[in-house]
Amino acid sequence: MEMPTFERPMPVKTPTSAPFWDGLAEHRVVIQYSPSSGSYVFYPRVRAPGTLANDLEWREISGMGTLYSFTVARRPVGPHFADAVPQLLAIVEWDEGPRVTTELVNVEPGDIRIGMRVRPVFCDYPEHDVTMLRYEPADRGEEPR
């Protein structure tokens, strides 16, 4: 009996998150900044955390960061990911402050270290009109522009 195949779920762009996804499509990392708190904000939202100010603006960041945490998922997290194990699930702390959940690519599980420098990898899925943000060790090449 052949196992059924599942199409992986893809993110859905909303009016609030559109600038983030549009930036990724251009291979740029664009997140919100709150002048009232003097800090970058991620995940996209309509009010600044802490101050609830309506002052969020979109700014490009380098996308460079440090590996904050990770896990190696040797069993699929769901049937949609049965062909994608092991998955290297990670939390990256951007140089600008916020943290993002992501996946590590172009690295062996045994070579992953908390605190390692990482750089963005833009994975385009044109059939879904989406670009996903992944990360690889920064020593894989030049820092992004």
From TrEMBL:
Pfam families: OB_ChsH2_C (PF01796). It comes from the Bacteria. Residues 58-122 form the ChsH2 C-terminal OB-fold domain. InterPro entries: ChsH2_C (IPR002878), NA-bd_OB-fold (IPR012340), Thioester_dehydratase-like (IPR052513). PANTHER family: BLR3430 PROTEIN. This is Predicted nucleic-acid-binding protein containing a Zn-ribbon. It comes from Mycolicibacterium gilvum (strain DSM 45189 / LMG 24558 / Spyr1).
